[in-house]
Holin family protein (Paenibacillus wenxiniae), 164 residues
Amino acid sequence: MGDEVSQIIRVAATAIGAVVGYAFGGWSVLIHLLLILVVVDWLTGWAAAWMRGELKSRKGFHGATRKVAIFAIVTIAHFIDAALNLSVFQDAVVFFYIANELLSVIENAGKMGLPMPDVLRNAVGIFESKRKPAENPVLIPEAQPEAVKEEKSEEDEKVGHEQI
């Protein structure tokens, strides 16, 4: 019985290693850091919601789904690198998500009432101001991100009021 369990564990570990190697091109320090931040963000988000009485299973499920999507996008970036014989896209995507997850951990800590150094509070403000998507000149106006369309309509309203 003990040998069977040991064999199952070895087969599972080998399969997981093969999937990780295929999906991410191996296990790097950056992917390890991203995994740690994703888990810490999920835990601090859960704790902050619980402390504020805002814990909802649907929101938690959506959050977990987004965390899985992060690694799907990292996988896509890996295959773009492989197709172009580069090693740029995956690292760029991983750095983006590391910064995003770190920001979220900082925000969650603030929601839990953890004292925040001014430098971190300022960093959160800077990252939040840069979160809005930029207008993509290649896309037609209807295909622009919603935030861009809303900003454009607000600008058009202001211009319309100024002309009156």
User: Anything to note?
Assistant: Residues 26-132 form one domain. Residues 69 and 75 are 10 Å apart (CA to CA).
